[in-house]
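$ ./design --mode recover --in tokens.txt
reading tokens...
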């Protein structure tokens, strides 16, 4: 097999590899949950095989894009395109709002929301939101299940790498909240 096509020319092998990688963070991921707006293929262009996808718009039109990338980059492309759909499929069932947010300032932005979320199909995420008088932003981080395999302190060490204190809280601040430890199953 070539570097460009390490799994041959069967598109399903690349989709399966993308699902396999997604399961690290999203254990409920499966290709049946992928957005139907994307159709993946390998096609011959100028006598060379290339990865491609077709995006199907809501108005019944579609757009094909040929990608001049290798197999690993294509797998990452699939993950990037499908991540939101996979995340949205696993709805939030319980929320823990981290206390101590009021008045906290992060790089001239005011922390507006910092909450841990437990999901219906399993897993946890954290939602961070901050803003100033003119603009704001939010981000959701899904926590890989492997982070929960050790002690609570080990979890926090990994967590702080995933969600650095610049998003709201230090390890020491989170350690001082016993309700959070209980919410996360420790």
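writing sequence...
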């Amino acid at each position: 097999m070539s570097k460009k096509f390490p799994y041959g020319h069967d598109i399903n092998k690349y989709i399966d590899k993308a699902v396999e990688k997604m399961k690290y963070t999203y254990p409920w991921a499966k290709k049946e949950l992928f957005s139907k707006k994307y159709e993946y293929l390998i096609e011959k262009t100028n006598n060379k095989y290339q990865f491609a996808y077709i995006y199907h718009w809501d108005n019944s039109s579609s757009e094909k894009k040929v990608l001049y990338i290798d197999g690993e980059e294509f797998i990452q492309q699939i993950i990037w395109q499908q991540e939101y759909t996979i995340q949205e499929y696993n709805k939030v069932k319980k929320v823990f709002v981290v206390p101590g947010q009021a008045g906290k300032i992060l790089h001239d932005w005011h922390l507006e929301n910092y909450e841990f979320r437990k999901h219906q199909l399993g897993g946890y995420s954290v939602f961070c939101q901050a803003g100033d008088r003119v603009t704001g932003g939010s981000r959701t981080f899904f926590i890989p299940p492997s982070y929960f395999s050790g002690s609570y302190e080990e979890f926090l060490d990994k967590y702080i790498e995933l969600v650095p204190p610049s998003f709201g809280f230090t390890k020491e601040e989170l350690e001082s909240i016993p309700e959070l430890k209980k919410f996360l199953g420790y």
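exit 0
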